[in-house]
Design brief:
Chain B: Pfam families: ABC_tran (PF00005), BCA_ABC_TP_C (PF12399). The complex is a heterotrimer of chains A (365), B (254) and C (291). By secondary structure, chain A is mainly alpha-helical. Chain A has helices at 9-13, 19-38, 41-66, 74-90, 95-117, 122-142, 144-147, 171-193, 196-206, 208-213, 218-244, 254-267, 272-300, 310-325, 329-343, and strands at 153-154, 158-160, 163-165, 246-247. In chain A, a hairpin with a 2-residue loop joins strand 2 (158-160) and strand 3. Chain B has helices at 42-49, 72-78, 95-102, 111-116, 119-138, 154-167, 184-201, 212-218, 236-241, 243-250, and strands at 2-13, 16-27, 31-35, 57-62, 65-66, 80-82, 172-176, 204-208, 221-226, 229-234. With 291 residues, chain C is mainly alpha-helical. Chain C is 70% helix and 3% strand. In chain C, 52% of the residues are buried. The chains are: A mainly alpha (365), B alpha/beta (254), C mainly alpha (291). At the A-C interface, helix 6, helix 12 and helix 14 of A face helix 4, helix 7, helix 9 and helix 11 of C.
Chain lengths: 365, 254, 291
């Protein structure tokens, strides 16, 4: 059993609980920085992919996990960030300017879309964003002069402090670039959550009426959340574009939107950890499945035949299992395990029990 | 001069008149109760003051401000805080976080400084925390500080909701049925708290309550309502003895 | 003449959208859940029927296979409610939405695994026959689709407004707790609603597969039907059908008279406009929450 004695309010305000926890996260960061020397090029690429998904997950987590607004259309903002970044690069802007701007542009676009969209509640917002995501494909095709339409665009190699950074040519610098974005976004996110704005997000998520009575401007808070969420998602999109090298109107399809939302649900809604855990599941599932298929091939008698849709099928089953048995996601499961060890031997089975209530209708009468 | 003035307010939902030409005024430093049978429009009066509803006619004034000119989210900034009949807390947050949301109207930082968590934001957070701790001490919430709302018993949630309202540093506190669902002991705690809220914090209290025992013990004046209109207004004893009130509760004597 | 032809084929397509939309609305009305897997359940219904009747599969007689596959899908709907939706009791609408999306993925995967990924058509007695009517040549399938849809919507409407069970379903949707207190077995009613939605999806699938080919990813069309349900007003059965017809008719006309790239855009743009500009008008049941 570990007990933390608190002697100062700053102890509650700073992001880590005690030195032990701080040390743990610093060690993790050190390990992440050292990854290019520990992994071969293939797994480094996979890790980069996971980190990019984590950024996208953090973006959606702000909106869905902390503000309670489900979006089924965030691929649209991935696309927005991706295209904005490349278009700005092609216009001759240096990467260090183009990349932040791509996120800002996406954030502003998101906030503008949010103004009409956030009058909608719950599933209606999900439907609206879903339609937005479907339209993105057509919008990209229709605005061909900028986006290259169906034939798409190629990401140029970028110059960062004199180093050419390219996903294939120089995987290590590209990985570090991604890691830097991840770390900065995560730190900003942590800060936000311990400040008034982050709390007002949670307030809007849990009870709009009382948030309003506490002086939180609901519409403004939601728009800010949407804007921040889109900004981070835009950065993720920009990284995805650079990572993929080539992309067109079908790269950021509605399926990506759905996958992103499912990812943060599996990871655990309402926690930063959840975005990372979900990204790990998304990133390594294909590898895991191909390994599993090789293992199973002798048993089933079939060779390593590609089964179309297998990934999504398995992904769907994992998600259903989580929603039924662990609605708090992987992070929720981890919290339970951790609490079990911390409180050993005093852990009780019903410690995390949720109250089951009759549906609180979102309709009036 | 009265702190809150409700002047000739009428609110209709379609054909139903929820509040009918209601007028009353709450003086600064007063503990004022609204009583009445279910459906009399008591909570609706609160929702009017919170600006969740806009009346068809009449005026609402708080401390010289025209309440009808401000939006719902700006009412708190004027110094009005409230609780809800069916507790409306932020269920998936801790007690501490709930109370800190109450400090939202004192926010001086902006998005950028919060994302960078500048020293000014840190100072503001420490100030907020100090104020919240005073309220936690006042309402004996220490054991629950880091607990999630979703796992707390009903009685504690009621107290947390009151604490959250107090964390806004209001001048007027609206309590919507503070004693409903509480045990006898909890109700007697509540009684002392309400008196201390006025005495120590100098906050005016307006409450909707069914427990006439509590109302008689703590309130200076009582407004009895039925069908959205005033039945009687006066001291608790006067109102309880008023023939129209007795009739509204017990029916017409044969 | 061309306009009439376009109109009829649009109406027939719209009917299929409308039928899927009916499934959405049925479930939404009774349980306030939104079933994003409805399109995939329709595809499942289509493939079950194809598997039963088509010569290359089991080759059962067409009219014998229909009731069997409808019953199977009703059972499937009931099981989905019993095994997946009921344990979600008390969780948010959004969680249920995500669950049904995941269910759609799983169904799509299973259908592909069992029946393959090639487009298949339901062999049926009406195939390829035309109906010449006052100079118009109409596919008999199109006519059948329209007739069946109208009959089905009418009988569902009557069911909800006339029968005890239908009224109980409505009551359960308005206020679960109150319905429970009034002695309505809320949970069983919800199971029946899902069964009904499964059956309706199966009929939609049969009509769709008779008109043209289906493949496992056809289920994504459910999103278009979803647009139909929203446009028509989420709370009403005739509204769902109407919305389906609007979307169905707009599509061929948009691709005929507006630039080709825009025809796909129109239904979704319409959906977004409806959501933003008429969020209350079209959803009469949506109002702010009471405190």
């Amino acid at each position: 059993m570990r007990i933390v004695f608190k002697t100062d309010y700053v102890q509650d305000i700073r992001p880590w609980k005690d030195r032990y926890q701080l040390g743990l996260y610093l060690a993790l960061l050190a390990l992440a920085v050292a990854a290019p020397w520990l992994l071969d090029a293939f797994y480094l690429g996979e890790l980069t992919n996971v980190l990019i998904w984590a950024v996208a997950g953090l973006g959606l987590m702000v909106l869905t996990g902390h503000t309670g607004q489900a979006s089924l259309g965030h691929a649209a903002f991935l696309a927005c960030g991706c295209y904005a970044n490349i278009i700005l690069l092609e216009a001759g802007l240096p990467f260090l300017l183009a990349f932040p701007l791509a996120g800002l542009v996406t954030g502003v676009v998101g906030a503008l879309i949010a103004i009409p969209a956030l009058r909608l509640h719950g599933i209606y917002l999900a439907i609206f964003t879903l339609a937005l995501s479907i339209l993105t494909d057509d919008i990209i095709v229709l605005s061909e002069p900028w986006t290259g339409g169906v034939s798409g665009k190629y990401a140029p190699p970028i110059n960062l402090f004199g180093v050419m950074v390219d996903r294939w040519g120089t995987p290590a610098p590209f990985y570090w670039l991604t890691l830097a974005v991840v770390v900065l976004v995560t730190l900003g996110y942590i800060n936000l959550l311990r400040a008034p704005l982050g709390r007002s997000f949670i307030a809007v998520r849990d009870s709009e009426v009382s948030a309003q009575a506490m002086g939180v401007d609901i519409a403004r808070t939601k728009a800010v959340s949407f804007g921040l969420s889109c900004m981070v998602t835009g950065w993720a999109g920009a990284l995805m574009g650079l990572f993929a090298g080539a992309f067109n109107n079908e790269t950021f399809s509605v399926v990506i939107s759905i996958q992103l939302l499912m990812m943060i649900v599996i990871g655990g809604l309402g926690s930063i950890h959840g975005a990372f855990l979900g990204a790990i599941v998304i990133g390594f599932l294909p590898q895991f499945l191909s390994i599993a298929k090789e293992w199973l091939a002798p048993l089933t008698g079939g060779g390593s035949v590609a089964i179309p849709g297998l990934e999504f099928g398995v992904f769907g089953m994992i998600l259903i299992a989580f929603l039924l048995f662990e609605p708090m996601g992987l992070y929720g499961r981890w919290l339970k395990i951790r609490t079990w060890f911390e409180l050993f031997p005093f852990y009780r089975k019903d410690m995390f029990k949720r109250q089951k209530t009759y549906l609180r209708t979102e309709r009036l009468k | 001069m009265s702190l809150l003035a409700v002047e000739d307010v009428t609110l209709k939902f379609g054909g139903l008149t929820a509040v009918n030409r209601l007028s009353f005024a709450v003086d600064a430093g007063e503990i004022f109760a609204i009583v009445g049978p279910n459906g009399a429009g008591k909570s609706t009066v609160f929702n009017l003051i919170s600006r969740f509803y806009t009346p068809q006619s009449g005026a609402l004034r708080f401390d010289g401000h025209d309440l009808l000119a401000v939006r719902s989210s700006d009412v708190a900034a004027l110094g009005v805080a409230r609780t809800f009949q069916n507790i409306e807390l932020f269920d998936h947050a801790t007690v501490l976080q709930n109370l800190l949301v109450g400090r939202h109207r004192h926010r001086r930082s902006n998005i950028l400084s919060e994302i960078l968590f500048t020293p000014a934001v840190r100072r503001q957070e420490v100030e907020n925390r100090e104020r919240v701790e005073e309220i936690i001490d006042f309402l004996d919430l220490q054991p629950y500080r880091d607990k999630m709302i979703a796992g707390l018993p009903y009685g504690v949630r009621k107290v947390v909701e009151m604490a959250r309202a107090l964390a806004t540093d209001p001048r007027l506190l609206l309590l919507d049925e503070p004693a409903s669902g509480l045990s006898v002991e909890e109700t007697s705690d509540l009684r002392w708290w309400i008196e201390d809220i006025r005495r120590q914090m100098g906050i005016t209290v307006l409450m909707v309550e069914h427990d006439m025992g509590l109302v008689g013990q703590v309130c200076d004046r009582v407004l009895a309502m039925a069908d959205g209109a005033q039945l009687a207004l006066g001291t608790p004893a006067e109102v309880q003895a008023h023939p129209a009130v007795i009739e509204a509760y017990l029916g017409h004597p044969a | 003449m061309e306009i009439l032809q376009l109109l009829i084929s649009g109406l027939a397509n719209g009917c299929v959208y409308g039928l899927i939309a009916l499934g959405f609305v049925l479930i939404y009305k009774a349980t306030e859940a939104v079933n994003f897997a409805q399109g995939d359940i329709m595809v499942l219904g289509a493939f079950v029927t194809i598997g039963l009747t088509n010569a290359e599969h089991m080759g059962l007689p067409f009219w014998a296979a229909l009731p069997v596959s409808i019953a199977l899908l009703a059972g499937f709907g009931y099981l989905v409610e019993r095994l997946l939706i009921r344990p979600m009791f008390g969780q948010s609408q959004t969680a249920v939405v995500i669950l049904t999306i995941a269910l759609g993925f799983v169904i799509r995967f299973a259908v592909g695994l069992i029946w393959g990924h090639d487009p298949q058509t339901l062999q049926n007695p009406l195939a390829g026959r035309d109906l010449a009517l006052a100079g118009l040549v109409l596919g008999l399938e199109d006519v059948a689709v329209i007739v069946v849809t109208l009959l089905l919507t009418g009988s569902l409407f009557a069911f909800f407004s006339r029968t005890r069970l239908g009224l109980a379903m409505q009551a359960a949707s308005q206020n679960q707790l109150a319905a429970y207190y009034m002695g309505i077995p809320v949970r069983r009613v919800q199971g029946l609603v899902w069964a009904l939605a499964g059956a309706v999806a199966c009929i939609a699938g049969i009509l769709f597969a008779a008109k043209g080919a289906v493949d496992p990813s056809t289920g994504l069309m459910g999103i278009k039907a979803f647009a139909a349900a929203v446009i028509g007003g989420f709370g009403s059965l005739p509204g769902a059908l109407l919305g389906g017809l609007i979307v169905g008719v707009i599509e061929p006309f948009a691709s005929r008279y507006i630039a080709a790239g825009y025809s796909q855009v129109v239904p979704y743009a319409l959906l977004m406009a409806v959501l933003v500009f008429r969020p209350h008008g079209l959803f009469s049941q949506m109002r702010s929450k009471k405190v």
